[in-house]
Amino acid sequence: MKIFGPTPIRRLNEAGGIVFLFAAVALTLSLISYHPEDPSFNFAGPVPEIMNVVGYVGAHFADLLLQSLGLSAYLLPCFLLVLSWKWLRSTPVELQWVRLAGGVLLFTGVSTLLGLASGWFLYESRIPAGGLAGTLLARIFVSGFNVIGSSLIALMCLVLSLYLLTSFSIAQLSLWIPGGIFERLRGRVSAWLAEQRRRREERRRAEAAKQGQPAPEDTPAFLRRRSEVLTEASGEDDYEIPIRTLDETEEYAREEAALAAASAPPGAPAGANGPDPDPPVVDYVPPAPASRPPWEEPLPAKTAAKPALPKYVDFRLPPTALLNPPDAKPPYDTAELKETAARIRSKFEEFNVLGTVTQINPGPVVTTFEFKPEAGIKYSRITTLSEDLCLGLQAESILIERIPGKPTVGIEVPNSRREVISLRQIIESDEFQSAPSKLTIALGKDISGRIRVASLESMPHLLIAGSTGSGKSVMLNSLIMSVLYKATPHDVRMILVDPKRVEMGVYENVPHLLTPVITDARKANNALRNAVIEMERRLKLLASHGVRNIEQYNRKIRQLMNEPRSLFEEENEIGEDLQPLSYVLIVIDELADLMMIDRGNVEESITRLAQMARAVGMHLVVATQRPSVDVITGLIKANFPARVSFRVATRVDSRTILDVMGAEHLLGKGDMLFLPPGSSRLVRVHAPYVGESEIHEVTKHWKDQAAPAYDQSYLSAPPEDGEEGEQDDFEDFHDPMYQDAVRVVVEVGKASTSTLQRRLRLGYGRAARILDKMHHEGIIGPPDGSRPREVLKKPEWLDEIESTANPA
Fold it and tell me: Which of 25, 55, 352, 540 counts the highest number of beta carbons within 10 A?
């Protein structure tokens, strides 16, 4: 039973909150201005002037509270302020009896500690510091536990009240310390240790130089200064290789282009003016993330199960502290990169493809070598040498593509040490935090190290393909986790389809779910068909309000809800339809399994949703590990302009999903090609990794706040078109072979047209009509693809029917 919580009437809640606020202010003023000679329950006599600023009533209340509770009476205005804040925001006071018990423990602990200070009196020694309650509690505890034991009991009450009244937890103590003092302390210690190691290494180098010995080679790469002059891999003359950030490199390139245009003679071939300098190595430095996102809040303490999606709840987005911190970025070896550039040039020269490597861009997973071919070298000649380059560089795979805006070809060579991209790094980035869309997903990092995010609202649907072990499932988890970090259950609802039964079970009971995680293909088909019905309902709703998309509709509805109404008007009186619509995200982990069960209905539902569901906020994410034309049909692919391909087995699969080849050369483990909507230019992105323990922590954060509000109607079969007309037809349907067909089906235990055709020598149309009649009467189940229908009646049922029809 709710006693202190607000009502469903928002304006009445605001009025109640104002009352609590003024009551807290009045009580505080009366306690502060208390005078022992004011008229009260304990003093009577002629008073020329009341000293209490709240007057006669304030003097009586202050005297009663201070005499009873002592200084702990000042906690009462704090409780009134909390209630005022809850009522003003129409936020329910959750676990009221638990909070009430915490308040009692708080008063007990404070009053007892003040009562133990036996010599402390207030107001001319008329009121003990702990009041009457503190004095009595102190005497009771001291008689049984002495002073030390009583103090421990009082402190225990204070700690327990902290647990019951707040979300405090010792496990998350670092989040309660302001300013991230633990993080700064850890950073300073790490920096001091690194500085000590660097100084020791410098002393070792100086001693080696004095003795005429070469510098030791076992120096860690992360301690090497970037300003060192590195030696060319071939051992020729020394060159100083500049290592610049991305902005510096672009400025340098503009200056060099202007200088070359002014000094070079027309038609001069590349490399005609002496030996080629070493290519600059460009290191992209991403912007440092904020120390703590503004929306990150302390972790709540574990509480009992909450009601399903309470209307007035303020959901807390999960903090990034639940995710594992990113690993240290593996350093790159400049000498190794220069050697690789020389080997690329040498390998091309073997096939008479001349040119120079003009720039090196180390990335998290691959390094891009910008190769500028000489005049007369065709681009097709370079791309055909990818396998030969793999052989020469001993690389797993190499991608070659043009670089937009430059006369160079990008040769993407895998790094010997790959960087593991953390989802936390993407979530904390400015790109993700500043994205306004609730359906922003973390794609990962591109080949240069830039963070890539995308919005499902602009896609508006996503098609994903990749072979087993390529990182497809991890990418789906990153996508769902991005939504959990960006949106509340009131913003986005999800339908998760997992025919494999092992990938998405961890998200069960998350309040964002519209249905339980669907593992049955037939229920998934029902969910898709019901989603089409919901789409049509939303389209009619938008049309009736004269808006074009869900954003305009929600904006209009919020304006109507915020219009002033009478004080006692219920919010529900504005109508059932006048509620903001949430986005619906449908994630299908394996499309091939659904297509095998009911290809026609699945393809039709996905196509209709992909064509018309964007305006009403319904979006599809469809994944498959078999990107063949019988799974990703032309009709489906035409309605999915945004696609992602991980590593696939053949070139045919790559062309099926992306319309171009190249996905067969990817590295796997999150390496993917992303086709943005409205573009034919592929972007190579490395997806972030998210572990199962991280998913458990984030889902637990949401499960502790509310239980899911499932809509089970999505799992039931939708009504067929013309179902009422068919019912009338079945009432007039009489076939002399119907009883024999029922007996055959029940005795055999399976129902199919071929069985009736063989056993009763019926035609296909007549047999199909008899099966429909049996389904209408509940004897057999619905169609199940190409498999026989399920028989719902037992053989004993026939005996009961015959005994009823022919009594002895």
Answer: 25
